[in-house]
Write a structure and sequence with these properties.
The chain is built from one helix and no strands. By secondary structure, the chain is mostly helical. It has one domain. The longest helix has 23 residues. This is Wiskott-Aldrich syndrome-like b.
Length: 30
């Protein structure tokens, strides 16, 4: 039995991950 993943959850998670990566990159570029 697999858990049904909500598309909204995927979108929020991917956007959150992108923001985290963007923050790390901006910190590295300083």
């Amino acid at each position: 039995a697999g858990r049904v993943v909500d598309l909204g959850d995927i979108m929020c998670q991917s956007i959150y991950n992108l923001k985290q990566e963007g923050l790390e990159i901006s910190l590295l570029l300083r």
